[in-house]
Design goal:
The complex is a heterodimer of chains A (312) and B (417).
Chain A lengths: L8 H31 L11 H4 L9 H8 L11 H10 L1 H31 L7 H13 L2 H13 L16 H25 L4 H8 L4 H29 L3 H6 L7 H10 L5 H30 L6
Helix pairs in contact in A: 1-13, 3-13, 5-8, 5-10, 5-12, 6-8, 8-10, 9-10, 10-13
Chain B lengths: L1 H6 L10 H41 L11 H9 L8 H17 L2 H11 L4 H9 L8 H8 L6 H10 L6 H5 L3 E3 L5 E3 L7 H32 L2 H16 L2 H12 L4 H8 L15 H24 L4 H9 L4 H29 L3 H6 L7 H10 L3 H25 L9
Antiparallel strand pairs in B: 1-2
Helix pairs in contact in B: 2-19, 3-4, 4-6, 5-6, 5-8, 10-11, 10-14, 10-16, 11-14, 14-16, 15-16, 16-19, 18-19
The chains are: A mainly alpha (312), B mainly alpha (417).
Chain lengths: 312, 417
Amino acid sequence: MAIPIYASPAERAWQYAYRVICAAIFIFLVAPILIIIPLSFNAEPYFTFTKEMLSFDPEGYSTRWYDSLLTLGMQAPENVRDASWWSDAWNNATWIKATKNSLIVGFWATILATVLGTLAALGLSRPEMPYRRVIMALLISPMIVPIIIIATGLFFFYSNPCGIAGFSCGRLTATYIGLIMAHATLGIPFVIITVTATLSGFDQSLIRASASLGANPRVTFFKVIMPLILPGVISGALFAFVTSFDEVVAVLFIAGPEQQTIPRQMWNGIREAISPAILAVATLLVIVSISLLATVELLRRRSERLRGVTPG
Amino acid sequence: MSEAMTAVPLTTSDGRPLKSALASAQLRAKRRAFFLVAPLLLFIIVTFILPIGQMLHRSVYHDGLSANAPSLKAWFAANPEGTVPDEAAYAALAADFKTMKVDKTAGIAGTRVNYTLPETRSLITATARNADDLAPPYKVALLAVDPKWGDPAVWQALRSASSAYTMDFYLISTDYERSPDGTIQRVPENTRIYVYLFVKTFILSALITVICLFIAFPVAHLLATLPMAKANLLMILVLLPFWTSLLVRTTSWIVLLQGQGVVNEALIALGMIGEDGRLKMMYNQAGTIIVMTHVLLPFMILPLYSVMKTIPPSYARAARSLGATSWTTFRRIYLPQTLPGIGAGALLVFILAVGYYITPALVGGADGQLISNFIDFHMDKSNWSLAAALSAMLLAGVLVLYWLYDRLVGIDNLKLG
């Protein structure tokens, strides 16, 4: 982006203005996410910087909102913090319950989406695949169709899943299975996209080479295909996990009180009395997303190195 | 030589004709590829296609009256449209009211008729409450309960609602209604809401798409022209919001922009606005626009960037060396080459914006709500068929855009980060 030597003064001025504009846009992108981190340590129940905070007075900062994440919903939060206090927190604290639910649902939804999605991507990348374009469009559509439509459809369907066949067999609303299936559906497009992208650089003749050397299809899959597409599979899985971990609309429509996840709890917090405790949760989630982003970036570079593409 | 080749078809080593051996091998390969996709296809059909199909069915189907008023339905079937209701009709109606009272289904039946003719729900529930007192002659008895039972408009509505299949919900969601004589007309000016809502959603989405484009363009250009190491570093600033929870981003914007928020406090501290001049940037349309722009921006930057990276800088230099000004070079040489990226990003952002729910629900206030929020509103009020009709119309719009995206960009080119 060096300014060319033949640039006129006006062009030079524009180049500098352009950089300032870009800097402002980067600030617009990142500042809102970073600003909540210091605010989550506010000693007062306010959402702005207090005078004490601005003068870096330690009195202005505290971890009380992080503490409140633990104690909210506990039976005896005032007790001495011994083993029984911690077991109380582990079993009853609202946010800990929500975290457990998010992890359970996210984990199984990711497994389901990744296994089914990777198999399908392998099929879709074969040149012989019939109706490739239509099926691909169908499998990606959960990402495009508005979430409210999916959630509404699932709400009716789950209240009597066998109703279509004309009999009744219980319900899937307010169950873990139902929520896991919904989140897997939402995560599948991401797995398909990342794995087919990895497979597009995959040399199909390696499969024939492996077969000619005497490997059966199973050995070929685990020893030749899998190691090469693994980075794509893992980043697809991370996308699927984040999708589930961040999903609130399906939870609002089909989950019961036992399946409250972190986003559902945040939704409550934002809609009702918003307290700085929300900012503490948000800060923790930002840290989670930074580490996930770092993982995906490292995987992407590794994948490109393996495939002999220059990084970028 | 050539005669011999046409006379004797080529065979494989086991004696089969080569052509059929190839065909069966290709069929096998096809089947194998399909078997890999089949489990996921089945899963998607069960958790995605069936539920949405079932919901769309609901938008034309409501058996609230037809399931609970069998005698009346039979009378309508036996007598063509326009027949003046006779004593037999009133007897059928009275018989149905008696069963409705026992089964406690007058509410749902009334709700159904109410969609066709407003303010009839209370008529039906009130009459059902007095069903035990009804005695022959039924016409006189029913007219004594409420003279409205003599109104042809009510009977017209009953006839139309006695069929389980109806287009009424689509009429409502496009601001039309049935007049008493059965013709279709627009609802009065002051009660039209849905067309306005669709237009508003469309305009707001278009506005957000345009703002995103203007913000994304310089950044994507910078990322595409910087040296790789620097560009990768700055790319992280674009990807961080992409990976951050939507609710976290919405929370941050509430903290920044609300009345007592960081931006307002900072402006007051700087003396730019007074204590009573706090800017209203949250819980209104402005809030929806600002936050959705921030949320959808990466979806614009990424496709633009991947197109701009493939544009060789030598074209611009060639234009300059041939005497073009920098503005002409941009307009005639650079911009046309970025069009595929602009198309891809704009379509994607627009598709996502049209169906957005979470952000408008949390920061939109009263005037920043979109179609999705109204679907939710009607779900909440148990107006399920109306919610389904609105969903169907939204879905149709999104699918047209999706088809367009596939034609212009190709789903294979959808990239994430």
